[in-house]
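Hi L., both proteins are below.
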Amino acid sequence: MTTTAGTGGRSRNLVLAAMIFAVSMTFIDQTIVSIAVPDIQRELGLSNTGVQWAVNAYLLTLAAFFAYGGRLADTAGHRKVVVIGVLVFASASLLCGLTPKGGVAQAWIVIFRAVQGVGGAMMFPAALGIVVQTFALRERGRALALFFGIAGGLTAIGPILGGYLTEWTWRAIFWVNIPVAVVALVLISLSEPVTEHRPARMDYRGLALIAAGVTLSVFGFQQAEIWGWRNPGIGLTIAAGVLLLAAFVLVELRTGEPLMQVRIFRIRAFRTENAVLGIAMLTFIPVFFFISEYAQISLGKTASEAGEYLLCFFVGFVIASQIGGRMLDRDGAKRPVVLGCALSAVGFALWAARVTDLDFSDQVWTVVLAGAGMGMMLTPASTDAVNRASRLSYGEATGITQTVRNYAASLGLAVLGTISVTVFRSRLRQSLIDRGVPAPRAADQARHLAQANSTAQSGGSAIPSFVRGDFAEATRTVLSCMAGVMALAAVVAFLGLQPGLQPEPAEAEGERPEPTTR
């Protein structure tokens, strides 16, 4: 495949900058909204389920449409799809910020958060495909370390900026995407990235199956908190989603021009790295949601101070991402991926051990360590997965990895959310009993307190001390689960990945139609 890797460094760096600005919006929206959740819920009067969907709808549509976005980029042109994705994302952001109060508020914000996800699912695989085609194989680790690291750095600004914007109005956390989108479009126009695409028909049958399968399965896990695990609807919903995903795989294997080349999972390294990414993403996105709540409820921080708490995670992430990228170019993916997962597991475990002390200063270095491990792992695993699949289209391969990542993130948020609420209510019930409340009434009061404090004014002093402590206990359980998840990811990476550098891939001639360069 002919790429633009031979172009000058200045031109390539401009392309890289353009793509970083484009995808930074998707990174920012994975964290900035979690800062404003209490304010959004309180002002719009959202239910607990509604506010969870305001967060999860974005992740769900990202997961459901990433394969579509990657395939569309490879068939319609990467630059065109990036531009369309930026415009869709920015427009949806504007409308999220314009959510009216009243009965329509919940449906409005959930719908346009979902549209944001569609825009992000279009732009991200196309942008990453452009970067991969622009840089040669031995330079991609460093280039994508900058791609993910700088985007992560911009994301780190998101929680802090989101905190200050929320103190003015939570609506501004969506409007901040507009100037970022403008900069991205200007840089795309100036850099004029050149990539290849192969016109082909779109597999809408596959798209319908994967979108429905992802939505139903994650919906079942999320509703378990509301309906209860004994409700037969939970099992039926999850089972229906899994069956649709299984049907998707079978259909794709029999489709001439599939939405997703599922046979790519026969490549051991690609299969292993997607398994590692899927396991790790059970924690990576959910951690921002839970820790933002912990900082505001247990530590009594304001929204902006909660953003500074999350910044510590990204300090470690950005620095270690650069180290991981260089290790990938020098030694291959196994060492940074295994080491990164292990470091993150240790960081989460140590963080969990200190979180109930309610002392932020004592937790800082554990937060940095957890973020560093995640950064060291994420860039090499994502980059090497796409490199291994280079005989296929880069956008399509990126769409696959991003589908796995965001589906796992949605599941992680749903499952860990259920664990958090269950532990929180249980601790509250026991605390109330210890304070003389009869056991039958304690359960009802615990449920009421759990809901009331999820919408408490950030940084307020009205939250009782025992509630702060009980929420910290719930957070400790969640962080302990995250430590276990990352330890599992380290084991999978150690057993599944081979040491050493990847050889330069040979392109398989005649497998696909001649590419079109644009």
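That was the first. Here is the second:
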Amino acid sequence: MGNLPVVRTSFIGRSGELASIERALEEHRLVTLTGSGGVGKSRLALCAADRAEDRFPDGVWWADLSHLHDDQLLTTTVCDGVGLMDHSSRLPEDALREWLADRRLLLVLDCCERVLASCGNLVDELLAAAPGLTVLTTSRQPLGIAGEHCLDVPPLPAGDDGDEAVRLFRDRAATAAPRLALDDPATATAVEEICRRLEGVPLAIELACARLRESSTQEITGRLVSRLDALTDEARWPRHHRALRTAIGWSHELCEPLERLLWARLSVFRGVIGTADAEAVCSGGPLTCDAIAPALERLAARSVLQRVGEGYRMLDTLREYGAMWLAELAEDTSLADRHARHFASVAAQAHAGWLGPSQVAWYRRIADTHADLCAALDHLLAEDPEKAVEMAGCTGLFWSCCGYLHQARVYIERALALPLSPGPHRTRALWALGITLTLQGDHKAARRVGEECNRAARRDQDAESILSAAHSISFTYLMMGRPQTAHSVSDHALRHLPDSSRDAPSHMRCRVIRLFALSALGRLDEAYEEATRLQQISLSHGEHWARAYADHQLALIHLLQGRPRHAETHARAMLASKHTLHDSLGIALGLDLLAGAIAAQGDGVEAARTSGTGHTFWRMIGHPHRGTPELGAIRERWERHARESAGDTAYERAYHRASADDAERGLAHALERQSSP
């Protein structure tokens, strides 16, 4: 159980360090691996965490902090790392403490140096709140809190005292230059000299290996000797820093001019870099758009970039070097602005494409670029408030489904607090804030924002704005347990707007609220017709969000009217769609219904298991009501039926086993299981 990154290159040596970390994790609750950039702290921590997995029944969880430039997103990044997507209005720190309180897990925080003080405070609080928590961190400096056990990570042994650096060189060289005869005596001697000159620093060795495509080992040795001799100032370039500075600087010099320019411009990115994003942000001047893709490939071949899926990632040390050159080129301000405006455009395109066949792709795109979207918003909030509020409104609904409710609320409230002109962009931001507040259970604030959104929409005289306001208000009333009011608001908006608004995204969203309200009012025949019609409209658009909720309601109606097999089919369809969208709230709702359908068919043990998995998702999102309020009594009836079928002992065993299991594994089981004949 956990989320450790998958690394495709082999791990070389470090047996002594791994043994020390293993002992330290047995004796201390906070272990920090310290060392200079490029020395291999992250890779060592990953290997140690993987080896320790069996000791932690609740898993090993990894949070990468390398993209953080301040502490605003620290806690939410850690929440993401442990799989917590809290939907409540609590502070993220409070939600995280509660989530970890009764768990026995290992939390790895990688690259803490940028947010050192805040990271230390957070770790101190978490260790106090969660007795079963152990934390392993990597940092260029210690966190400096009580109970911290530091282990310095040295470079790999090189030269006469060991051969781990040589082994690393040989392993990476086999990929970079597979035809190189490493056993040739002259080559072997040169390899040993390279590793000795580079002081065994792993990143420096990997960068040197990348040179083997165009230089011999003897040529590399000669260049290193001359370059290192030039760096004689020990005060400025301590021993290990000199080796890494030499390797990075040499790699930079050996890049073509356009590759160096791209390296510098890529430093504005925070997360995984897609080719299209690099083309949009980094092209200009001598670096044409067509030159970006091949230059990315060459930078990856030189180990400046790492391939991650279909994109690229730059190590923090190399990003810092690129940022230094970007400032030297006096392009840092203009590139930050281009980066921000590009991702604002991505958010706008996603919002415009929400109601269509690319909906799933846009959800994934917004989730995958989260770090860069946050960086863009931070920049625009300072430089262009109008663009910031437009962007915040566009990301609102996506972030609510992707589990980023706290970020959505913070960014939208920051944007709306700025002096802004009235208009549809501000109205959309109010709508997104109202949805966010409702999902967090802050209904009083949501009603206030919904009414403000409604007043703004009337001023806009825009059909989509009016429907958005109705959606926000009716959704809040539905979640407050007032389905009649929710129905009245959504139905009035749907009936009194022109036919031209029927293809507006919020038209579909209002239909979902009206459908839920009909079911809650017991008007099941009307609800069935509405759900069937909604499903047809959804299919015509090729979207999944509304279709999933149509399936949810069809499952509920079939179940209430005594057709549990039909209910199970629709509940599974709903789960599949919500899983595709990574919508944890929708998954939790679907699991509740699926458990009821299975219980109604007499399989109490499987119903208990499904309900236990649902409990895991409800805990993960911290939802205060487990969905719409009127389902509470119905869930209790399904649970009683399941207990009677299975017996209390078997029910409790299956339920607790599932609720303690990995959420994704439990969901996979629920999706795979078929109804018994």
